[in-house]
Amino acid sequence: MFLRYLTFLKIVNDEFSDIVVNAELYPDKIRLSLIDDSWIDVRYPIEDKFSFHWQRGEKIYRIDTAPHHRNIKTYPRHIHLGSEDNIVEDNVTEESKSPKKISEDLCYG
């Protein structure tokens, strides 16, 4: 897990230094502080368990695999869209999707 986080930090430093003002490594996550005063927590301990949480003021956007929300078709994968209570299916992180298709889904719903 630690090596995965170090690799992630290198990518952040190499590719996103124009928008990331600080990157902190914690025992269980990485926190990225962005130029717009928002922040992202990344938890990715093993391949099929993750949480990407973006906090923008009072709004949250999180994709995760926490084993709740069993009524969601993509269980355990789900998205918190704008708030903790607005839960939608995660059709973004399917393994078979290409980066282009993921980008299209994010941009055009």
Helix content: 10-25%
What is the structural class?
alpha+beta
Task: Indicate the low-confidence ranges by residue numbers.
Answer: none
Largest sheet report: 7 strands, antiparallel
Task: Please state roughly what percent of the residues sit in beta strands, choosing from under 5%, 5-15%, 15-25%, 25-35%, 35-45% or over 45%.
Answer: 35-45%
The tally of domains stands at 2
| Number of separate strands | 7
For this entry, what is the oligomeric state of its chains? single chain
What gross morphology would you assign?
globular
Instruction: Figure out the total of helices.
Output: 2
What is the mean pLDDT? 87
Side-by-side strand order of the widest sheet: 1-2-3-4-5-6-7
Q: Please write the string of helix (H) and strand (E) elements.
A: HEEEEEEEH
- Ends apart, CA distance between termini: 32 Å
**What Rg do the Cα atoms give?**
14 Å
Task: Give an account of the 3D structure.
Helices cover 22% and strands 38% of the residues. The chain starts with a helix and ends with a helix. The model has no long low-confidence stretch (mean pLDDT 87). Strands 1-2-3-4-5-6-7 form a seven-stranded antiparallel β-sheet, covered by helices on one side. By secondary structure, it is of the alpha+beta class. A hairpin with a 4-residue loop joins strand 2 and strand 3. It has two domains: 1-47; 58-109, no CATH class.
